[in-house]
Amino acid sequence: WNIVISTMTFRSVGSRDGYVNESGEFTNVGGSINSTALTINVGDASGDKQVKGILSFDTASLPDTAVVTGAWLQVKKSSLTGTNPFSTHGSLYADIINGSFSGSSALQTSDFQALADTAAGFFGAPVSNWYTASLTAGLPYFNVFGPTQFRLYFGTDDNDDGSADTINFVSGNSLTASIRPLLIVEYYIP
Question: Which of 11, 25, 47, 91 can bridge 180 by disulfide, Cβ–Cβ 3.0-4.6 Å?
Answer without folding.
Answer: 11
